[in-house]
Amino acid sequence: MFSQKKPYSAVTVTVERLTSEAIPENDLSGIPDLVEVINLQDTGPTEASRALRKKLKYGNLHRQLRALTLLDGLIQNAGPRFQRTFADEPLLERLRFCGTAELSDPEVRKKCAELFRSWAADYKNVRGMERVASLYKELPKRKKVVTQERSKVIKETENPFGEDDDEPASPAGPSSRRQPSLSGPQPTGTVQSFSYTSKDKKKKDKDKKGKKSKPFNLEAEKEQMKAHIAEASLAATNLMNTLQTINREQERISENATAVQRFEACKQLRRKILRYIYHVESEQWLGGLLHANDELVTALMTFEQLDRSIDADSDSDDEVAEQAHLYRMATEKAKGKEPGSPGSAEAATSAMAGLRFSPSPPPQPPRPSAPPRPSAASKPSLTQSRRVESSDDEDDEEEDENDPFADRNAVNLR
């Protein structure tokens, strides 16, 4: 179990500091410090690789661009040992994803393309850099992309005559301008939550079928259709913008109330757009309807992909590491502070407390045993020890009878 613990030392702390929003995107002044802490320990390249990959995976746009800048700077300056050991498969897979996936930000894809071409030209024949040099011609190998066939939310909204047609209009959403359904007056007293039986459900299904057979009048619904097309484009844009502002290192997508609200609005609008596509045959309107549907599909699938990234991303370390990440987020959120905020004093203290220069210090050789020291009871006093020493010296001097300079041969002048 302890072998699965990932190192967290000065390398990770330095990467966190150098990828903050306070540092410009192409600033390289922190590279020497990062190279120094990496070279101080055996696991430095591996830990730097993992820390940068996490920024590419969970960080916002600025942190992703900073991670790419730091990675390029390390490749050029950290030396051969770093070049041979940093390029593990999870990092390479994340780089492939950032450079090719549609979910990746266009600026990130552009920077990846520039770096991939540069690495291919500079490190083609460098030992240990062969896989990095070939990134420009590779696609993600094991990426589990959420396609429309596999997307759960797309399947939920495929039926244009779904349950949303019978739901009362929501005053908070932009799609609330809808005519009341044909299901009779709403009760004004206490909600009878247990009066909905299977017979009522069958009756409601029959009403839906009858409602579907109702002829579609394009002229009568033209204005409402135009409004829904505009709302669909706006809702998709709002959802995409919200997703870009969420820091996935600190918060899960489905836990953000604004993102979930806009996600549900997009789901309802897509059902309406599909209903119009089902009925409208005029090419004058089909183009706008199809475009609106594409925007909604992109926004909905982006939400689903980013929210389930722990399951879908192919560069995850292991289940234990990902569960530890979720547990840390939940624990810090329960304490009422931002998880891992680099600016807080507590985070800095905890980060410094976790500093270490090697994952496991080598065992120290046993020290030579010291000579036995006499106990306090047997230890003579200072005066006594001096007397013993002087008496020993006298004994030694008395033993030498042929010494002309002995004290017994001294001349008494008094």
Structural account:
It comes from Immersiella caudata. Pfam families: GAT, VHS. This protein is mainly α. Among the domains are: 2-143 and 334-353, Serine Threonine Protein Phosphatase 5, Tetratricopeptide repeat (Alpha Horseshoe), CATH 1.25.40.90; 152-177 and 216-311, Methane Monooxygenase Hydroxylase, Chain G, domain 1 (Up-down Bundle), CATH 1.20.58. The protein is built from 17 helices and no strands. It has helices at 10-18, 31-39, 44-58, 61-77, 80-85, 89-100, 106-122, 130-133, 152-156, 198-212, 218-245, 257-279, 283-307, 309-312, 319-334, 345-353, 382-399. The longest helix has 28 residues, at 218-245. The chain is elongated, with a radius of gyration of 37 Å. Mean pLDDT is 70; it is low at 164-199, 310-325, 337-363 and 374-397.
Strand and helix layout:
Blueprint: H1 10-18, H2 31-39, H3 44-58, H4 61-77, H5 80-85, H6 89-100, H7 106-122, H8 130-133, H9 152-156, H10 198-212, H11 218-245, H12 257-279, H13 283-307, H14 309-312, H15 319-334, H16 345-353, H17 382-399
Helix pairs in contact: 1-2, 1-3, 2-4, 3-4, 3-6, 4-7, 6-7, 11-12, 11-13, 12-13
What are the salient characteristics of this protein?
mainly alpha, Methane Monooxygenase Hydroxylase, Chain G, domain 1, VHS_dom, 414 residues, ENTH_VHS
